[in-house]
Amino acid sequence: xxxxxxxxxxxxxxxxxxxxxxxxxxxxxxxxxxxxxxxxxxxxxxxxxxxxxxxxxxxxxxxxxxxxxxxxxxxxxxxxxxxxxxxxxxxxxxxxxxxxxxxxxxxxxxxxxxxxxxxxxxxxxxxxxxxxxxxxxxxxxxxxxxxxxxxxxxxxxxxxxxxxxxxx
Length: 168
Fold this sequence. Notes:
Layout: H1 2-15, E1 27-29, E2 32-33, E3 35-36, H2 38-45, E4 50-52, H3 63-66, E5 71-75, E6 78-83, E7 87-94, E8 101-104, E9 107-110, H4 115-122, E10 135-140, E11 149-155, E12 158-165
Antiparallel strand pairs: 1-2, 1-8, 3-7, 4-5, 5-6, 6-7, 7-12, 8-9, 10-11, 11-12
């Protein structure tokens, strides 16, 4: 996990990606808001496949850094991480198949979402110089008081994964 976090920070720093900010309140999985309570998530999705401490080294979801306990609710292709006090955030979405999708405003994001469509949704500041039509795009939280956001992983110009990111 350390190496992945380090790699993402380096890549984000080098690319100096600037794009439209993302409104966390408008990002939904099914009828569940990006920020939801554990009770709401379980009511809507049922019992998680797995519940565990994510052991993030640092960031807004780090037990050590925040001095709070966090847990991850893992479902097929989706993970929510958080706690009772702060609620849970949509932490990871794997677009392994066409059945997994999330909604941002009126737009559906899924395994068929292209880089051009992401440009349309989030503004034309998303770089088109991704190596071999693959790479990452960071879109920051619209809340100016926070420094978190979402990382969109692109492969062959298609969306394959979204991950929540917060600074160390």
